[in-house]
């Protein structure tokens, strides 16, 4: 027999053997997958029908401004029913309906518990509108409303219209723009370590914003909040206020002009 024919027959045998082994391997994989599916199916059926997986508890911890009780009262859960049959999307939506809740996560603690974790919005300022104090977070979400000021350490804002807004809403349009400007002013003052605390802001007039600081009885007529002037103007005010506070002055400082460096006016009420 020619050498080429022998070589060719050998290669055919090798290929046939390789295909047979591959076929056997595929059959083995199929059987393994089938067995795994059976096990998973069996476990699933066991979990669905075993009373050991019936809901007995919803785990919720108290937050800073949200109580577990408050969240629990909103949840549509069915105790004694399988944990896998609970309406998790609806549970999460109920938690997120609270104005203070920024984000929430609902998980199963096998075998018979559900855990609710959440992130709270942080109070940032208080808006005084009519006779009510509205607490807001840094991004302008309305968190709660009170007849008395519940957070005296937060700056109080005046001149921001809240007609038609509901708790949980975010400020928009003119009110939202005013609020963003105030946040930028407060954050810039914080970042630049301005040595006084802005306790009240009147934004009734866009061109004549007024500030009051915690450390003295001095009204600051700031003027329009312009982003490009914030740092320089606050640094200048910092030096002016240091001097006035050191001297025990009471009155009004007007830096509302764009040429405030030359036109700063101080009115001393002690000499009126």
Detailed description of the structure:
The structure is a single chain. With 272 residues, this protein is an alpha/beta fold. The protein folds into 3 domains: 3-49; 52-120, Ubiquitin-like (UB roll) (Roll); 123-271, Rossmann fold, CATH 3.40.50. Helix content is 37%, strand content 24%. It has 6 helices and 12 strands. It has a 9-stranded mixed beta sheet with strand order 6-5-4-7-8-9-10-11-12, with no helix packed on it. A hairpin with a 4-residue loop joins strand 9 and strand 10 (218-223). The longest helix is centred in the N-terminal third of the chain and has 47 residues, at 3-49. The radius of gyration is 34 Å and the shape is elongated. The N and C termini lie far apart (128 Å). The relative contact order is 0.07. The model has no long low-confidence stretch (mean pLDDT 87).
Rounded to the nearest angstrom, the distance between the terminal CA atoms is 128 Å
* Largest sheet strand order: 6-5-4-7-8-9-10-11-12
Total helix count?
A: 6
CATH topology (level 3) name of the largest domain: Rossmann fold
Helix content: 25-40%
The biggest beta sheet reads:
9 strands, mixed
Name the quaternary structure: single chain
Low-pLDDT segments, ≥5 res: none
């Amino acid at each position: 027999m020619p050498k080429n024919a022998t070589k060719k027959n050998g290669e055919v045998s090798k290929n046939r053997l390789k295909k047979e082994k591959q076929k056997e391997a595929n059959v083995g994989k199929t059987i393994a997958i089938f067995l795994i599916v059976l096990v998973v199916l069996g476990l699933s059926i066991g979990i669905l029908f075993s009373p050991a997986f019936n809901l007995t508890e919803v785990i919720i911890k108290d937050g800073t401004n949200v109580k577990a009780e408050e969240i629990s009262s909103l949840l549509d859960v069915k105790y004694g029913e399988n944990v896998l049959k609970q309406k998790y999307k609806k549970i999460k939506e109920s938690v997120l309906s609270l104005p203070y809740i920024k984000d929430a996560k609902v998980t199963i603690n096998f075998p018979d518990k559900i855990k609710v974790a959440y992130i709270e919005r942080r109070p940032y300022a208080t808006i005084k509108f009519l006779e009510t104090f509205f607490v807001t977070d840094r991004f302008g979400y309305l968190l709660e409303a009170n007849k008395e000021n519940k957070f005296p350490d937060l700056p109080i804002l005046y001149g921001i219209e809240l007609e038609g807004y509901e708790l949980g809403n975010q400020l928009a349009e003119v009110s939202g723009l005013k609020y963003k400007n105030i946040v930028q002013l407060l954050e810039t003052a914080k970042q630049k370590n301005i040595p006084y605390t802005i306790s009240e802001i009147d934004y009734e007039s866009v061109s004549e914003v007024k500030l009051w600081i915690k450390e003295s009885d001095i009204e600051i007529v700031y003027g329009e909040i312009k982003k490009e002037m914030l740092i320089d103007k606050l640094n200048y005010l910092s030096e002016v206020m240091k001097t006035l506070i050191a001297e025990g002055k009471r009155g009004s400082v007007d830096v509302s002009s764009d040429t405030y460096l030359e036109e700063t006016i101080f009115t001393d009420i002690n000499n009126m």
